[in-house]
Every structure is written in structure tokens, then in C-alpha cells.
């Protein structure tokens, strides 16, 4: 297996994919730039959270609201989903069978949906303890940051379903391949954001 | 909000009271009648303008052409033109508002005729429009048109996304326009500081109009920035290395990078304010742990880079104009590139100077004050570079050149007042006074607006194939320059005399004479705008005499002049090979311009797409529903947006082929036309003899 210089961010398809590899160059770069813009968005929301963490206004704070066990399970689910997506990308790159690719994508989807279910359960527990966003500046910032990530994951899941639909309709054509590659970048990006949330929000909040 | 309430109010907050003349009819006091008549007049202008436009398009059966050749076109040139049209429409509205405000202040001793709320709406819409719906579309349109031509590309990297960006911007602009007819706009200024704009102090629809108009526009600009940056990084013609790019393209790149990184803070700020207003969050409220300083920081983290997003492309325009109309290579190209980059980076380090007086320690203020002053250095470098480009050049006083010289003189003054304001000690004295208003208009008008109008004159012949009338152009330029000076220099004095900004009325008679001068200036600026309209009208009527189909009316230096005017949709019959800076000048010197090709190839171009107008309609209805709490409209629009995006994902077959035969035919037609026009010297540049072919002149020598 010869090594080729990377043409674009993320896993490169390699020249074995011919024009698909060429077409990926500016699209993948563009999507990466979009993610950098999105990273600034998250950065701003993180900044809001970090500067609001003591603004509990007499309401419940991290100790009363966060459940580290549940968060840990969510983290494992999301990390596992990044692994399964990585396997899907490799399947795509080395042209293994399409059912195998769809299998890895389906595994990713299941893990993603499981993550969202746990997260919603967390939120409802917080609500039950009086941790609603209108209670304090701290809770506003929390419910801006963590659900923003959750919304991204939801969007990623919808996108994933649509891509499987495109595979069913068109097979693995250029556009489907590029879609999977972009979703891969997106998914791993959300994983990194989650690690930041896990560290900055939950670990720092409970120490 | 309970379900029965929602069901009982299918139009949300929308009612007869939302109409601009309702209050006047209910309570016909003198003040109500005056303000009602003005508001109704403005609303009628919008409605009548829309009806007349619709009627004319129907009368001349142009709906088909409009749809298939413009609205759904992914062509960067057409999208660029549509952006500039939007900018001019919005410029007209915001200038009329400026005239109204100046009139109010001129007669504001002890009252005036506008109510404080009406006046507050005027300065809020004026600022919002000028920044987001005039300057931004203008420069986005110019970059859209020119940049791909300058780097030898067929289109931007993502043509349909480009059309969607335009759609989002138009939807935002439409929201600001409809706020004239239904309800009122925000009274919180163009930066909408909470807690004043929170639901507790501004419960009406005004801040919501502001929030969603900005959100739409900022999304559009983020996508635009990504699109331009990827185009410049990935779609340059062979040989077009970074240090061979024309300076306008360099400034386009820096502006795009700023858009990518500076728009998200605005999105976050407006989204958080929306969460506060709609879902009772506490980001910026007074109570329960909210902190408005978060908003100030987020907004100006966007707001300061934003002023460089606006000014950098104008600097690019001046670089092209000064070099072309001096007949010389740009002096200090490398220094100009570095200065542009330096400004782009420094722009992220100074945001705090917008609120020196809001409670930081003196040391922090000092750091940001020094950083702000540092920006004067690269900007000063640029001014010297332009002056040295003109030095011993063959200078022609064309309209763009007049704007450029006006810019150089006036912008330096604006810059110096900026250096003054960068000193926190001085800022404490004059902040929130009209001194500040004078300062930022002094950089925004001669800087951004003159630059964009210069660009409009400079590239108009390229876009439409004929030159603009010089005489009316000069009249307009002089009115702009003198009108600007009369309108804003008095404000420096008034500011030092202590007049606060946004004053609807005052009790200090010594303000009156300077206010009158400023009013005269505003009138002159309106005359300048009218002169621009007359110029366009006259130029269209005389277009046959002023055709420049050969494509090079000004002895241009970069690749956009190396093709016909207007260019074919695919821009270049064959992508150019670039061997040096000022690629077209090099080609003219070594006689490789205007060549027939041996072989022609099929060219793949993007197909038309309805995504742009569809997203515009969805974005508008979503935002309108949110403003008026019409929840069924919000839900339907949101679902429509999701379905549209998913549908687009399933679209295949999105390109079409322009046949080699057609490329050959069009290219030969142009080469034949070039052969049939006489090359003219620079002395005949502004006469009908100019057919768009330049005589070869030795650099810098006066013939």
C-alpha cells in the first residue's frame, strides 16, 4: 500500500477512486472550513458557560444537577459511535461491500440515538430537580451549550438516515461518497466537542 | 403560552394595531398625526414600489426571464449583480432615513417633529441597513463578480450555496422592509444592547425583527465567506500563485476569513437574545444571574472584525483603481499584502475599545487602546503605497479616481479621530457623543461607500459592456465628497461641545448652526444619490455609443480585463496560464493576449437551481412567523426547510455542458470584434472612441 499525500482533511479516498477523489478536494476543504466556523460558535457558547458557571442565582448548581454515571455512559456511546463511523470510512475507502458499509453506518446511528436518549433523560432529571433554563444564568448557559451539541448530533442522525436513503437510491456514487465523508468529519468533530463538554462542564463542574 | 391561546390567535401578535396609521386614527393628536403620516408614507413607498415592480415585470412579460436567467442562476456574475442591486435599494432607504434624522436634529431645539420612538427606529434601521443590507451586499456582490475573474476561475467553489447566501440576505432585507408596513422596528440601535432589548423593556416586535434579520444575514455571510475562501484557495488558474493574486483578491481572501470567524459570535449573540426573549432564559437580563456584558463582548467580537470585513475590500478596490488609472504597477505590493493580513489579525484584538467605559480596569483598557492604535500602522502603510503608486504616474481623473483621492484625504482624518478615540482617557470624554458618530461615518463613508461606488464605476463596463456617463458620475462624486464633509465635520464640533449621540431633541441653542450645516450636507448627499440614478439612466440611453465589448476600457492589469465585456457565462474559453503579477499586462506586453485557440473543449457548468429563491422564501416566512408569534407558520417553514435540504441531497444531474462548438463560436466572435476596434490611447479613454481596446503604452511614461 503506497502512501499518498493527503489532498483534503479527513480520511482520503486515494487515487483508486479516480474522479471521486478529485471532486472531494474543494468540497472537503470547504466543509472543514465550515466546521472551523462552527467551532467558533461552540467556543463562544463555551465562553458564555464558563463565565456564567457561578451565576446560579440561588438555584441548583452542578453538584445538585449533574449525574456523572449517566454522562460517562453517554461519553462511551459517543466514542464508540466515532469508532464505528471510522470503520464505515475504511469500508468506503477500501471498497468493501456496500451492505457492510451500511451496517457500520447503522451501528453508528444506533449509538447516536442511544446517546440522545440518555441525554434527554438527563435533561428531564435536571428539570425534575428544578434545573430549568429560566431559573438562572448558569442554567441558561448550560442549556445553550449541551443541547446545542445534542441538536448537532440530531442533525447528524437525520443526515445519516438520508445518506443511507441515497445509497439505496443511487448506490455509492460520487455524491453519496462525498456525503459520507463529510458526515464523518462532522461526527468526529462533534465527538471532540463532547470531550470538551465532558471536561469543562461535567468534570470541572463536579470537582 | 397555552394551546387555546395559540389556537385563538392564528395570526399571533399581528392585528390592526400593527398598521402604521392605526394609532393616528385612534388618537389624532398633532404629534401622532405627523409621525403617523411619515410612517405611512414610508410604508406606502415600500408597498407601491413592490406593486409597480410586479406590474412592470408582468407588463413586459419578464417573469420567465427573471426566474430562469437571474433568480435561479448559479452564475457568480449574476449573483454579484443582484447583490449590488439589493445594496442600492437599501442604500436609498437608509439615506432617506438619514435625511429625516438630520432634519429632525436641525429643528430639534426644544422638540422637533419626530417622536423619540420614531427617531429611535430611524437610527436603528439606518445603522442596521447600512451595515448588513447595504455595505455587506455591496462588497459581497463586488467580490462575487470580480474575484473569480481575477483568479481565472469559471465560478465560485459552491455556486448553489452562493445563490442560497443571496437568498438569506434578501430574506433579511425583506424583513427590515416589511417592518415599515407591519409593526415597528427595534429602537435599540444597530447593536441592540440588552437589557433594553429584553422582553421586559422592549416587549414589542421591534427587537425580534432586528434579531431575525441579522440572523438571516449573518448566516448568509458565513456561507459567503466559506465560499470565497475555498474559491481562492482551490480554484486559482494554473500559475496564479498567492503572491501573483491581484490585491482585490487578497483583500477578498482576508475579508472571507474574517467572515468565517467573526460571524459566529453574532449568531450566538442574537440567538441568546432570542432565547431570553422567547423562552425566558437569563443570558443578558438584569435578574437571576444574567449579564449584559456577555452580549457586549460577543457582539463586538463580531462587530470589530466586521468593520474590517467592510473596509478591506474597499482597500482592494482602491489598489486596483489607483494602479490602473496611474498606469503603473502597484507600489509595495508585498507590503500591501502584509498590511492587509496584519489588519485582519489585529481586528480580533481590539473589540473592547467599543466599551472602554463599561467597567474594565485601566490596565485592560490600556492594552486594548494600544492594540487599537497599532492598526493605524498597516493602514498608514497602505496610504503611502497608494500615494507612491500615483507618484509620476499617468494619472487620469476618472470617476473612480476622484473617489479614491477623496478617500485618501478624508479617510486619513477619520483614522486620526480613531487614534484619538483609541486613547481610553479621551474616549471617556467623548464616548456616546456625536464625535463618535462623526468618526465612524468618517471611516465608513469615504472608506467603504466611496470604495464600493468607485468599484461600481470601475467594473460596470465589464459587467454590462458599456461605460457609465462621466459627467453625471463626476457630479455625483463631488456631491458625495462635499456632502459628506458638510454632514459630518460639524459633528466633530458638536461632539466636543457635548452633544450626545441619538439625541432626538435638545435645549442648547449653540448646536443649531452646526446642525443646519449638517442638514445641508445630508441634502447634498441625497442629490449625489439622485445624480447616480440619473447617471444610470443617461448611460443606459447612450449605451450604444459607449460599448466596450472588446473588454479592456481602462488598460486594465488583471485577468478580468482579458475577456469580453460582458464575459461569457463560463468566463474563459480556456483557463489562462499565469506567468506573473498583473497577468493581463504581462500578456499584452508579450503579445499573447487576444488569441484564437487551436482546440476548444466542452465546459461543464452548474445547472440552474431553485434553491436560492426557495430558501429565501422559507427563511423569510420562518423569520416573519417568529417575529409575530405565528407558530403554525414557523412549524411549516421549518419543515419546508428540512424537506428542501433533504431533497437537495437527493438531487443528481446538477451540471450541464457548454459545447466546444459554442465556446468556439463565442470566442471567435469576440476576437473578431477586437480586431475591428481601434486601440485608443489613454487620452481618449473617456470618449466614445473607447471600444475597449487599449494602445500599448510603456509603463509610467506620459505620452
Account of the 3D structure:
The complex is a heterodimer of chains A (207) and B (703). Chain A is an all-alpha fold and 207 residues long. The model of chain A has no long low-confidence stretch (mean pLDDT 94). Chain A has one domain: Four Helix Bundle (Hemerythrin (Met), subunit A) (Up-down Bundle). Chain A is elongated. In chain A, 78% of the residues lie in helices and 0% in strands. A two-stranded antiparallel sheet of chain B has the order 1-2. Chain B has one domain: Cytochrome c oxidase-like, subunit I domain (Cytochrome C Oxidase, Chain A, Up-down Bundle), CATH 1.20.210.10. The longest helix of chain B is centred in the N-terminal third of the chain and has 35 residues. In chain B, helix 17 runs antiparallel to helix 18. Chain B is globular, with a radius of gyration of 26 Å. Chain B is built from 22 helices and two strands. The interface between A and B is large, with 42 and 39 residues.
Number of strands of chain A: 0
CA distance, first residue to last residue of chain B:
78 Å
Task: State the helical fraction of chain B.
Answer: 55-70%
Q: Any idea what the shape of chain A is? A: elongated
Number of strands of chain B: 2
CATH architecture label of chain A:
Up-down Bundle
CATH class of chain A: Mainly Alpha
Give me the Rg of chain A, rounded: 19 Å
- Main sheet attributes: strand count, strand direction, barrel closure of chain A: none
**Helix content bin of chain A:** over 70%
Strand pairing plus helix content of chain B: what structural class? Answer: mainly alpha
The total number of structural domains of chain A is 1
Provide the spatial order of strands within the biggest beta sheet of chain B. 1-2
CATH architecture of chain B: Up-down Bundle
Distance between the termini of chain A: 48 Å
Oligomeric state: heterodimer
